[in-house]
What does this fold into?
Amino acid sequence: MNPYVNHGVLLHQGAEAKIYKCEFLGRTAIIKFRFSKKYRHPELDEKLTKKRITQEARSLLRCRNIGVQTPAVYFVDLDMGVLVLEYFDMAQTLKEHIFQAYEKYDTPGQYPPELVQVIENVGQKLAMIHNSDIIHGDLTSSNILVECQEGSEGNNVVKIIFIDFGLSSSSRLVEDKGVDLYVLEKAFLSTHPNSENLFGALIKSYKSHSTNCKGIISKYEEVKLRGRKRTMVG
Ligand SMILES: Nc1ncnc2c1ncn2[C@@H]1O[C@H](COP(=O)(O)OP(=O)(O)OP(=O)(O)O)[C@@H](O)[C@H]1O
Ligand SMILES: [Mg+2]
It folds into this structure.
């Protein structure tokens, strides 16, 4: 048992990590505990765990520096496999957000304008991430949080928060950015039925905020085509 999580409440059990809600120096926080994988060689497992935690902490900080919201990093313990992060109390995953919006607006292929705005916001933030040569590596609608709050003038303030950077890396290559987009598209279309046009809005916004959209989008189209051919061959 990891001593850090004695007083935490388990929020989520992923394939590689457990997420606990806890108090950290008077703040509500989450503990992301990467447990060891018994099927891996212990030395390799330790190396991989440390690499993922280091990459996650590094990319979370880099994103914050360029104005993309991510959880603040409160504490890192590589030997124990622990990352303590800011908890977004009022946020839901983009996945939950989309399902909720779909429930309210039951016309296949059409989406509420607020949802399109959220998606455009995601496209813009992702372009900012790629403009800084950060590759997320595991983009899905569960790894993006949406926080909607009422602003001081009664307006709706929406925050897009990127999480789960354990597979992230640093790269200038258009291919890596194109693959990042492709991974998101695959996850997006398989999780959210009739979302082709919605994803189209994300790509449109991405293009208008990307500093190198031509190269990236042509790689993305190429990877997509390769993926389709593979599916057709079987
Ligand atoms: N800072 C946070 N604030 C609020 N909720 C969070 C935060 N970080 C993670 N969560 C919640 O916990 C879930 C899992 O977190 P995360 O994606 O970082 O871990 P994971 O183990 O990699 O999950 P998976 O294996 O399912 O991808 C998120 O989808 C989200 O619901
Ligand atoms: Mg995740």
User: Anything to note?
Assistant: The two ends are 44 Å apart (CA to CA).
